[in-house]
């Protein structure tokens, strides 16, 4: 059973908030003992998903960074919540190459590949809620 410890909440409104979230995520990953490659994976995932909040939810969202533990395993969990328009077709959005904007459509499926766990909930008008985890 995964236990989430208290974390750091970062409102995401503008691009500089994405940088703050990325820096805080890297610091937490370093503190936990992740190697440089995994630190890069975690910060890339944070950048992608936090930037989605700025672009698609017009800065109406937040990131929650926290340590997690599952028995002897330790890791990092990052939760993204926004109050944007939501995603109409999650299966399509998780497919490679799909984009509702002008991007390459690699953000959501690419982020999923970078992390050990990826959970997403969304519906039209209900925003997007994503939780990602990386384990040591």
Automatic annotation (TrEMBL):
Pfam families named among the record's database cross-references: HATPase_c_2 (PF13581)
Signal peptide: none
InterPro entries: HATPase_C_sf, HATPase_dom
Taxonomic superkingdom: Bacteria
Annotated Histidine kinase/HSP90-like ATPase domain residues: 17-134
Gene3D superfamilies: Histidine kinase-like ATPase, C-terminal domain
Name the record gives this protein: Anti-sigma regulatory factor
Organism (species): Thermithiobacillus plumbiphilus
């Amino acid at each position: 059973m995964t236990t989430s410890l208290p974390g750091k909440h970062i409102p995401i409104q503008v691009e500089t908030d994405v940088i703050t979230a990325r820096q805080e995520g890297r610091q937490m990953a370093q503190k936990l003992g992740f190697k440089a490659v995994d630190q890069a994976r975690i910060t890339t995932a944070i950048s992608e998903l936090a930037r989605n909040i700025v672009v698609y939810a017009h800065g109406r969202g937040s990131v929650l960074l926290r340590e997690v533990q599952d028995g002897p395993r330790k890791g990092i969990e990052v939760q993204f919540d926004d109050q944007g328009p939501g995603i109409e077709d999650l299966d399509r959005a998780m497919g490679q190459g799909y984009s509702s904007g002008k991007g390459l459509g690699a953000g959501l499926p690419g982020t999923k590949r970078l992390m050990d766990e990826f959970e997403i909930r969304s519906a039209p008008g209900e925003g997007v809620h994503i939780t990602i985890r990386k384990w040591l």
